[in-house]
Specification:
The structure holds 3 protein chains of 3 kinds. By secondary structure, chain A is mostly helical. Chain A is built from 11 helices and no strands. By secondary structure, chain B is an alpha/beta fold. Chain B has one domain: P-loop containing nucleotide triphosphate hydrolases (Rossmann fold, 3-Layer(aba) Sandwich), CATH 3.40.50. In chain B, strands 6-7-8-3-9-10-11 form a 7-stranded mixed β-sheet, sandwiched between helices. A 4-stranded antiparallel β-sheet of chain B has the order 2-1-4-5. In chain B, α5 crosses α6. In chain C, α3 packs across α4, α3 packs parallel to α5 and α5 packs parallel to α6. The chains are: A mainly alpha, B alpha/beta, C alpha/beta. The complex binds adenosine-5'-triphosphate (2 copies), iron/sulfur cluster (2 copies) and magnesium ion (2 copies).
Amino acid sequence: MNITWTRRRTALSRFWRDYRRQRAGLYGAAILIAAVALALLTPLVTDPAGMDVTRATGAKMAAPSLDFPLGTDESGRSVLLMTLWGSRVSLLIGFMSALLSMTIGTVTGIAAGHFRGWTSAVLLRITDWFLVLPSLVLALVLAAILGGGTSTIILAIGVTSWASTARLIRAQTLSVEARPYIERSRALGAGHWHIMTRHVLPNVAPLVLANTTLQVASAIVAESTLAFLGADSGKVSWGGMLRGSYDWGAATSGAWWYVLAPGLCIVAVVMAFTLCGRALEAVLNPRLRGVSR
Amino acid sequence: MTERRENAGERGSLLEARDLHVEFASRGRRARAVDGVNLAVGEGEIVALVGESGCGKTTLARTLLGLERPTSGSVLYGGAPLSYSSRALKAYRREVQLVLQDPTGSLNPRHTVYEAVAEGPRIHGMSDERDRVVSALARTGLRPPERFLHSYPHELSGGQRQRVVIAGALALDPRVLVADEPVASLDASVRGEILALLLRLRDELGLSALVVTHDLGLAWNIADRVAVMYLGRIVESGPVEQVLRSPTHPYTQALLSVLPESPSPVVLSGEPPDPTRIPGGCRFHPRCQVLAAGAAARAGVEGRCRSQPLAILPVSPFSADSHAACHYAGARLE
Amino acid sequence: MSLLRLRDVAVTYRVASGEVPAVRGVSLDLAAGQALGVAGESGSGKSTLAMALLRLLPRDARVTGEILLDGEDVLTMNWGRLRAVRWASASVVFQGAQHALNPVRRIEQQIAEPLLVHGMATPAEARRKVGELLEQVGLPAWRARSYPHELSGGQRQRVMIAMALACSPRLIIADEPTTALDVMIQAQVLALIRSLIAEHDISLIMISHDLSVLASMCDRLAVMYAGRVVESGPSGEVFRDARHPYSLALSAAFPTVGDPASRRAPKGLGGDPPDPMHLPTGCSFHPRCPVALPECAFQEVELWAAGESRTAACVHVRPESVQPAGPGEGLEKQSVPVARPAEESQ
Ligand SMILES: Nc1ncnc2c1ncn2[C@@H]1O[C@H](COP(=O)(O)OP(=O)(O)OP(=O)(O)O)[C@@H](O)[C@H]1O
Ligand SMILES: Nc1ncnc2c1ncn2[C@@H]1O[C@H](COP(=O)(O)OP(=O)(O)OP(=O)(O)O)[C@@H](O)[C@H]1O
Ligand code: SF4
Ligand code: SF4
Ligand SMILES: [Mg+2]
Ligand SMILES: [Mg+2]
């Protein structure tokens, strides 16, 4: 088993070598690591008391100063503090809903590609249905029905955004299923479960990984949009901050810091995820094609 | 299993196709890829199935494995018709194994040699997985097995890959091996080794084999009996020495005549045959050189060649007789 | 004068992990109107050699030596001259050519392209020429309007041959033109090539690993192993009476149907193909050679004369005068049965 371990290590180092060549991907990864590190460190270095509206210490809508490097909001809370705490919520929702969406999408996609006949037809119909449905509206409705809370938002985004993934995974599954080793496996006596888990899943995994990364980006955008439209988790998130700034007319009243802080954060993190996703695609996909020929 | 063996009798057939038909829908038409085939492989017998590209060899092999359902007719194993329930198929595939046409495609590039060979034993929940893998690899000549266990397919040569595929089939200790073009994609120098391996397995383990190929030299090298297929039908079958030394069907004669060494090649012209448009009468008549040369007319069978279909050839394993589906050959015998 | 003359041609590919010496010093001659067969197992450098003849190799390949086509060195030619030679003097039917056709363009366009590009014909003339070419390779002229996927493998291979004939070359290099085709179609394509080279007095270099096919098509044969020619001579003689153990294994691999000696006795060659980056010392065949002598592991071999207009690179054919004294004494006695391993093993 020692040898498998060595092989994994070399595979990993080869992956890293290829990834390193992707300049943009490296920048993306750096931004992400910084963002995640900040989000994780926030509870250790800051006091959540500052987030309480009733205990806010600053003036309302104060411009950036030494005390409040990014100014304050309508209740006198530090925008910097809010941005830091908001990143935890935004990232959490982004990651979790992307995970949910990828799980649903992968399972549906593999099943729709593997099975023939009505199973595949039904799954495809459902996928198409979710694909054409305006997912934001659906998510809004879902969030409204289920009531507030972080998990509701995760659920709402995850359940409405898996369809395109399912399509992608199904296409890849079909191409894997056409390979002779699937027929060999079947001739050895393999059942559906064996083929799907031992052959198809490992082959679509790189695609899933690259896609999840991209999906996190769109989930963060979706979260912000939902929050902006009023469906939030009840906790401060970047989307929620934007909504607040809009409600209090921050942009028109010259309180640019209130808009800019969460706005730039969203742009930066979304861009970082996209860069990483694209880099992963570039690194993993040629190899996927190369070895599966 | 022992019951079946007794039922089938000492020299009975182990794997048999009876009046087998397989059709595909192909661009709105029916392609009769296998169009009435009787074929039998006896215990410890090696049968070669030869024929040109597209005549339905692979389809027949896949149908024998239950990977394709026959449109009509049946596959018999140990005298009993094949059941298509998934449990029965799984049990069946423990005893009858398939080696596919293309060794490179047959191996998952992400699985090591060990995983590839262990796949069968794992599926069937066999306990002594590692021992089986090691011994199967050693039997196929990948020695020492430990050297190959953790290799990936792309690190192996073509011949080694083919041996891994065969080892994967052997790991289940099958009684019948159906090998589809086992050496077509291989180098000349590796070819003999793989064939020798098949012969040795038959001698040592009593393995039965159906070897699908378009290479008559291969049939001559290892088979006991040979069946020649043309456009979905067996047109001649019998012991290798008889069929390949003194073929009676014009198609077999043509196949043998185009071997590089032969003095007077009969190169069949015309397009490769199309299973969606099988000619009436004798299915070979549009390309038949005996008919074209007028020999059939002289024997008085020309009309029958063009209009009277031929019966499906009977087969039995170990049979010492050869049969040909040809009016002309029939008339000359009388 | 010979049409093609190779002197000590070597090709090395530069790859990430080092250098791959794919061809290591090959000298050959081809007279006008002659057919030369090049045999050898997969990876022995046959295609590389063929591509080197017209400088068709990728940039990372370094070619050294001398390749004289009609007395002109291909390796030092300028680009303009080289392009002229490629179309007018020699053309290649590539390995796996059936997949080399552009799937979205009609056969007609693909055959006419070189004629038009080189200004050798007006579009109307080119169209007529395409019809003629197709008839020459046994396809009806209306097939010109077909797309590649509408043709069978054998028909596609004929189209490739028609393309090679388009500019009336004097030399055709056919790289495995029939591998992957079934026996009947293979026979059709071979008969076609045979009649074309006879009618138009074209020289042929044909590459294959099937010695029996080459023996039936070519005047002379060269057998390659690990980037070198290990045996050459008149094709019939090399095929029936090989002197080098590797050629012997190669010719035994394809049995003669009806020959009792090969019945139930397939012959192969054990061991693994050589890794060009880590070639064995001495005779590169020694790890797989059934008749290797101890000295083979370090003694360099070269092509020695092995009969009239025949050569082989094996110590068993080495002329007496070059043999080292001492351990070579028993060799003469030994070499009679030993040079024919196939017989010995029976
Ligand atoms: N799934 C399918 N759908 C439609 N037609 C098919 C299918 N599979 C095979 N055929 C057709 O059936 C015929 C027989 O095919 P098959 O693969 O059995 O030939 P083969 O004898 O194995 O040929 P080769 O020597 O080229 O492998 C061919 O004409 C092929 O086009
Ligand atoms: N572009 C390349 N870069 C690096 N190595 C190469 C390249 N092309 C070929 N080689 C190597 O050079 C050697 C000779 O290859 P070549 O294609 O000439 O073999 P061949 O005799 O034609 O084999 P085959 O019968 O399989 O076609 C092989 O070891 C191959 O791996
Ligand atoms: S039956 Fe007639 S057409 Fe058919 S193979 Fe015999 S002679 Fe030829
Ligand atoms: S030189 Fe030696 S190793 Fe090489 S082929 Fe001759 S006998 Fe074999
Ligand atoms: Mg086939
Ligand atoms: Mg080649």
